[in-house]
Design goal:
mainly alpha; 3 helices; 72 residues
Length: 72
């Protein structure tokens, strides 16, 4: 048996099995119990500062307040 045929048989059987197990493992890890809070927190990142801006302009070294004063 030449090298190509041997490698092809290994890829057709064992590598396919390994890839399928890896895929199922990733799916199982993503949907594991207890990960709902992590996924919900990650999904809400764009909306964190929607109601309240990130900068309140009252910190001692506030760069945005100084920038606004310079623009006036």
């Amino acid at each position: 048996m030449d090298t190509y045929s041997l490698m092809r048989e290994i890829a057709d059987s064992w590598v396919l099995l390994a890839m399928a197990l890896f895929f199922l493992g990733v799916i199982g890890w993503a949907f594991r119990p207890g990960s709902r809070k992590t996924h919900a927190d990650t999904a809400n990142i764009p909306f964190r500062n929607e109601d309240k801006p990130a900068c309140t302009k009252n910190c001692p070294d506030c760069a945005c307040a100084k920038l606004k004063e310079q623009q006036l």
